[in-house]
Each structure stands twice: as C-alpha cells, then as structure tokens.
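Example record

Each entry pairs one chain with its bound ligand, iron/sulfur cluster.
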Amino acid sequence: ETTGHHHTVSSICCYCGTGCGVEITTDGSRVLAVTGDGAHPANFGRLCSKGRTLGDTTGRPSARLLRPTLRLSKDEPAQEVGWDSALDAVSGKLADAIRQHGPDSVGFYLSGQLLTEDYYLFNKLARGLVGTNNVDTNSRLCMSSAVTGYKLTLGADAPPACYDDFDHAECVLIAGSNMAFAHPVLFRRLEDAKAANPAMKIIVVDPRRTDTASIADLYLPVLPGTDVALFHGMLNVMIWEELIDRDYIAQHTEGFAVLKRQLQEFTPRAAAELCGISEQDLVTAARWFAKSAATLSCYTMGLNQYSNGSDKNAALIHLHLATGHIGRPGCGPFSLTGQPNAMGGREVGGLATALPGHREPGNAAHRAEVAALWGVPALPATPGLAAVELFEAAAAGKIKVLWIVCTNPAQSMPEQALVRAALEKVDCVIVQEAFSSSETLAYADIVLPAATWPEKDGTVTNSERRISRVRAALPAPGQAREDWRIADDVAQRLAASLAPERLPAFGFVDAAAVFAEHATTTAGRDLDYSALSYALLDERGPQQWPFRDGHGTARLYGDGVFATASGRAQFVDVAWRTVSDKVSAHFPLRLTTGRLRDHWHTMSRTALVPALTRHVEEPQLAMHPRDLQRQRLNSGDLVKMRNKRGAIYLPVVADDSLRPGVAFIAMHWGGAALGGQGINALTTRVSDPLSRQPELKHAAVAVEPA
Ligand code: SF4
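Structure tokens for the complex follow.
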C-alpha cells in the first residue's frame, strides 16, 4: 500500500516462533514505523517489546557487513573483494575439498532464522550438488528433541495444536517454557483466555519461578532435568485413580501395557522426591490435567535442551494420549518453536537427519524420491553430522570447508573452547552474515554480506504450522545479497566446475520460484502444501499446513488416525535418566540458562536498540540468597564461575525466584562483557542420543569470589 511517498508492506517479525504479522512503513530508504498487523491470526495486531522496536534495528550501516571480504591465508588480513571474486573463491574451495577429500569434507551450518527459500537452496546445494548430508542448523540446538518426541509418538514432526486452542483449553500445562519472555504475544493470549475463563487451571513447571509462573494456579519448581519423573508420576496417579481414557488408548494407541509396567516405580512419592517437589502438588497436577475437559501443554527449551530431551517430550505426549487430550479444540501437546523459522527449515530438510518434505536421508525410498524431484542420479547415503558432531569433526581436521550462514556458533554452541579450536582448524571458514558484531567473523576466511529483515522476500512457518509471507520493504545496504541468491550463485559456479553427469537445476529468478519448487516436494507428504503459492498466500493470507482441497488445517489427528505405520499413536519406552553433568562436592551448583524478555540470541540485532538493552544492562549470575550467604557473597560482587570446561567472571545477584542450589544466567552475552567468552564456555556438548540436541540448559558449576 502506498500513500504519498510512504509505502507500507505486510511482513513477519524476525524474532521468535510466534510469527507475529507486522506492517512496515518506509519512505523508500528508511523504516518509518513498524506496527502489528491486525489481520494476522498469530497476533491480531499485538507486538512485544522486540517486535515493536524492529524499526530501530534498521538503517544502521555501521552495524552491517556491506562488502565481501577474503583472506588468502590465516596470517593475512582480509581484503575487500567484488562478489564475483568471492563467489569464485567459495566455489573453488568447495570443488578442491570435494576432489581432494570427498564431499563429506564439506559442512554447512545454517540457521532457524533463515527463510524457507534460503534453507531449501542450501539443502539442494549440499545434498544435490556437493553430495553430503553434512548440513545441519542451529535448530538442532532448539527444536530437535521436539521433532524426535513427535516422531516417536505421533509419527510425524507436526505440532497437532494451534493458537486458537488457548481459547478452548480448560487446563494449560506449561513445562520448561518462559512464555512471558520467549513468546510474549502468545503469553498475552493465554492471559486473555484465563481472564475470560477464570476456571482455567494453569500449571507451570520450571526450576525458576519465572514471569510465566506468575499466572500459575500451581507452580512446580522441579529440579533441572527431572521432568520425565514428573510426567511418569502424573501418569501413575492417573492410572491408579482411573482418570485415563481407556477407550481412546484401546482404539488409537499401542504400547500402553509396556509403559504401564515401567511406571510402577514412579509412585507419586518417589516421583515427587526425584523432582524435589511436594507429592500433593504432583497429584494435583495429575488430577487437573486428566479431569479437565480440554488440556493443552506448551513446552520448549526446558524440555528440549537436555540430554534426555526426547524422553521428556515423549513422556509429556504420553499424558495426552492416555487421557485423549489430543485432536480436539483446546487440547494437545504444543511445542512452541524457539526461532522464527525452525519449522520451515524442518519442512525443507534443514537438519542433517532430514530431507525435503519431511523425508529422511536414512530411507532409500525417500532419497530416491528427492533425487527424482531434483533430476540427479542419487542423493548421498552417508549419514550427516549433527551440529555438535560437525564441530567435533572440524576439530579433528575432517572438515576442510565449513560454510556458516546466519548464525554465530563461536558464541552459541556449547563447549565454546572446542568450537573455537574447530573454527581455527578448518582450512576455509565461510561466514555468510548480516551483522558485523558476530564473534564467528574472527574465524572467517571468506565473508559474504547477507541481506536481512526487512530486506528479504520469502516465507516462514510459525509454531502453529502457519506459513506466512515475509516481504522486503527496503533494498539491502551496500552489496549485501539475499541468502538464497548467494547459494544459487555458488551452485551455478560449482556445477560448471564439477560438471556432474546430471545437474540439479539452479538459476532461480526469485524467491517465488524457489518456493514453487519446494512446495512440490511436499506433495503426498503429511505436511502437503503443494497447492500453495505466493499468489495464493497474497490473496488469502497465511495458511496452516497441511493445505488440502483449498483449505489449511487448524489441528491434527481429530480422526484419531496418526502418522505412524499402523495409524496408531505410540507409547514409547522412556527409561529414567537425568542430567549428564552431575553436581558434586567440586561443582555443587546446578546452573541453568535461558532468555531475557528484551534480547534475542547473541544480540546482534537487539543490542542495537537502547530501549531493549536498558531492561538488563549486563550479564549477571542469579543465585538464591541462601547460597550467596553461605559463600559470604553479596549482590553485585564479582565471582568466578567455573567447571571442568572453563571459567567466566561476572557479578552475582540475589534472586529468590530460584530454589537453593540452582543458579541462572541469561544466554545472550559474549564478547567484551564476559572477557571474550560467553556462558557456553561452561555448557556441555553431551547430547540426547536420539535428537542429538546438546544439554545447553544445565551444567554443574562452582562459584567463588573473584
Ligand atoms: Fe516478534 Fe515473537 Fe514478539 Fe511476536 S512475540 S513480536 S514474533 S518477538
């Protein structure tokens, strides 16, 4: 819409997986205003502090990478070069590595903040042309345990619920999610639903009494990593008190008898003891969950970022299957996506363990289907490396070219010392990035300046499976280019250099053409949106997949038929395990990590906005007042926090929202604020064996006066 010399474009906020619609008004060269899109069904016009201040993150060329750079050796300074030289160099490095060391000497590390079109082209380049499955993303650190949880139990990576369910739920269980900070607009929606229906029961499970817990009718301060015991204990109560839905279990599920035997030892008392909560509270939670007419569960990193993350997801989904709280309005296990497009990435195969259209690289028929769609003889069968493994392989000298796109692993990956050593070891590190503050740039041999919000066209999929158009409102500054276009340009050069027998097609003219090809890969799959196009999205607005017979789908499994081979949902074997890093006399504190309301990831965007940095100005370690007293520490004192992986120095602050023995630090800071390091100097790379998601949420540490 254009009025005078002002132009307004509808797009999507680029931060969290809520996926709020925004209206961006520009004068053609500057963003004048960003407001909520009243017509978008994710937010109906609302925005949180981060979304409202998006305009302030734009028009700052000094914060941006504007031209490609290249260094000829690790000892030489980087030089600015033109795009042709940079793209030739990338293509040349890839071709050399493939010829000399094989395709698996190349790795791609992408981001849940890329648009679906970017993700699609990088996957096509990696698997269809380079010939490797070494293409993983920071979604591995975010949602991969939610993926395995859904696939194990329901058969597909598909959240069954939707935002509308907040308005129909009678009981909401929030586990391991500080929605009030991480998904603020959804939290407002929950507050509205509770105000409209005061009888709604809200249960919050979190080691910290977060802002989200302020809405709780029942707050369960479980010890970090113990959620499986809680969910098993709740199911044990439901079985004993005849609160399960026997008909639903009989008609729509398998495996309940085996699980039931496992649950015997999780008496309410035993389970409550493992979790460090009261037995009565556990029983109350079980009764509320089972007896309500409609129960919805919301969860995110507090379940996912643990070495038992898949188990936690499955154990929570068991509660829904055992009570039939799934497939109806107000019901279901609802994973809230952390990043804005982790879901879209999963749709195109944006994990080493996935292929386009929710297919798997380990499945020969799936590989053959994608190879046929791309017109190549075959896709690589060698399993790809997940994020942590990719950096481990790099540290061992096995990765010769590592292409990092739209993410900051030098700061955000666990075991920072290992990751940084790995980045030094790789022959050629390519960093494709929009912002000049990324710590990973220090390791780059080739820097490719990328366009970012609000300069890009494409699509994203939010937590409720809703695909929305992201629209460019301004040209990119300097020579920055769209991410998909950079992948496409390199692919064309590499194809000419490798001259394979049959070439996958590149040379896409625009994002719409990329989407059109991607959409065809979903035909006949659980997420089928092959009928969607930019024209249809422009005409009818955002749509939820699967999109069939001209309609999106609000919620899944209403017919009780699941995406498993038998059509029945599965109760799975979930043995009891807890955190990998056990507390000890040497490292007696349980450190947990999380987000602040006003910052995003490693702050490359939010640190540009004074109104956001004012909320909390510096990194602090929050500890219970009793723990501080025991160590004769006062709020504001500088401490050394250490474990066997590293040490950082920072001030402490007393915080009685924590239970004694648990400490908390926000994940965002690195760089100068923490002596060049970040919290990930201390976190562990030990990962969930199924989802391969590392345990970023917990580390055993010691704290002493600095
Ligand atoms: Fe953006 Fe998430 Fe805030 Fe919505 S809730 S405005 S998507 S950060």
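Residues 13, 15-16, 18-20, 43, 47-48, 50-51, 183-185 surround iron/sulfur cluster (CB under 6 Å).
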